[in-house]
Amino acid sequence: MSTKQRTLTEPFKIKMVEPLRVTTEEERTRIIKEAGYNTFLVHSDDVFIDLLTDSGTGAMSDHQWAGIMLGDESYAGSNSWLRLERVVKELTGMPHILPTHQGRAAERILYSILGGVGKIFISNTHFDTTRANIEYTGATAIDVLPESSLHTEEDLPFKGNIDLEHTEALIRENGPDNIGAIILTVTNNSAGGQPVSMENALALREMCDKYGLLMVIDGCRIAENSYFVKHREKGYENKTYKEIAQQMLNLGDAFVMSAKKDGLVNIGGLLTLKNDDLAMKCRNLLIISEGFTTYGGLAGRDMEALSIGLEEVFDADYLTYRIRSTGYLGEHLRNKGVPVVWPIGGHAVYIDAGKLYPNIPVHEFPGQALVCDLYLKGGIRCVEVGSVMFGKKDAAGNLIPAANELVRLAIPRRVYTQSHIDYVLDVFDDILEMRGQTRGYKIAYEPPFLRHFTARFEKLG
Ligand code: F0G
User: Fold this and answer.
1) Which residues have a Cβ under 8 Å from the Cβ of 82 and sit 6 or more positions away?
2) Which of 166, 229, 318, 397 is 20 to 30 A from 220, alpha carbon to alpha carbon?
3) What is the pLDDT of residues 265-287, one digit of tens each?
4) Which protein residue has the closest C-alpha to ligand 1 atom 18?
5) Rounded to the nearest 5°, which phi and psi values hold at 289?
6) Ligand 1, pocket residues at CB < 6 Å
7) In terms of domains, do 306 and 321 share one?
8) Atom 8 (ligand 1): residue with closest C-alpha?
9) 155 with 278, same domain?
C-alpha cells in the first residue's frame, strides 16, 4: 500500500462469515474442568478466539474457492496437478515435485529413506513431527541453535539461525558419512517462530558442499521468513518476497513443506527434490502410501487452491499485514508488561509463562496454568510449549524440565481482525490482575507419547 498506514488494516474484506459463540466464564469453568484442563480436549464450538495453531486454520480467498470449483479430479496428469507442478518448480527451482497430504507425510517419505540406525540429523530446531519421523527410523536428531537464541528477551534479527560452528563440530565428530541430512527449519517454529537469514543459509550450503551433505529446507513459513530477510538483512531491500524465497529454496537439495501454513490452504504438503535417484525412491514410497505421483495425498481441487495460495502468500500487502498483525499483538503485550519472546516472530507470539507466573514452580506447569487462565477468562485457546510438551523424566520419575516454559498464541492467516486481537489484549489485563493468585496443575493422566494432546490435569490448591 503506498499511502501511509495509520492503523493496522486488513488488506481484505469479508464475504462470508462464520459465527462465533460467546460463552460465559461460568460455562467455561465447567467446560475446562470436564476437559481435564487440557484445551486440546475442548470442542471448537466452546472456543471464542482459537490461537491453538496457524496450521490449516487460515481462510482461503475468493480466488482459491473459485479454484476449488475448477479442480480437475482425473487420476493421472490432471490440469490441477500440472498447474501446481509449474508453480512449485518456479518457486523452488527443483525438478522433482511430489504432492503429499500434509507436511509430516513428506517428512515420513524423505526421512525413512535418509534415516536408519546410526544416522545423525542436525537442524536449527527439528519440529516435533520432523524429530518423530527421524527417530522412528532409529536415527538421531540433534538441535543446534545459537546460544543467544536461548535468551528469550534478547533483541536479535535472526534468532532462528542454525549454529554453524556447532554443526561443523558435529559433522567432524560423527563423520560426514553418518550424517543423514542437515535441516534448516524456516522460520524456526519451535524456537519462537524466529527467522533464518540468507547469510546463514548460504553458509550452510557451503558447509554441505564441503562435506558432501544433503541440505533440506523445512520451509512451511518461507514467505514469512522472506519478509524478515527483506526488512532486516542488508542487500535484500530491493528484492521481492518471492525472489528472496526462490533464492533461499534454491540453496537446498530438498524442500519439505506443510502447505497448511504459507500455502494458505487447509490441507496439503509438498516434497521437492533436486537429485534424480533420491526422487525416484521417494516417488515409489509416495505411490505406496500417499497416492499416484500426480496427486499424492490431495484432491485436484486441493492442488488448485494450493497453486493459488502459493502466489497470494507473496503479495506485499498480505505479508506486511501478516507480520505486522502478529507484531501488533506481541508489542502490545510487551507494553503491558507481559514477558514475550523477543523480537516477535512471524506466525505466533510466545509468552514466557515461567516469568509471568514466578509463584508457580516448573513441576506445577506455569505454561499450562496460563493456557487455562486464558480459556477461563476469555475463551481463548492456545498451547503450552514447555514442560508439559517437552518435559522428560529421570530414572526416579522426577521431571527434567524444558528449556523454557512458553505458551504459544498462533495466529491463523486472514481469520481474525484487529478487534479480535484487541479483545485478546483486554483479556490479558485480567490475567495480569490475577497473576498472584493463579495456581499450578498436576498431571492426573498421561499417555506414553506426545502427552500434551491427551493428558488430563488437576488444579492444585
Ligand atoms: N514442520 C514445521 C516447521 C511445522 O511447524 C509443522 C507443523 C510441520 C513440519 C508438520 O506439518 O502438520 O502439515 O504435518 N506445525 C503445526 C503447528 C502442527 O501447530 O506448528 P503438518
Assistant:
1) none
2) 166
3) 999 999 999 999 999 999 999 99
4) 55
5) -110, -25
6) 53, 55, 102-104, 127, 129-130, 185, 189, 218, 220, 258, 260, 269
7) no
8) 103
9) yes
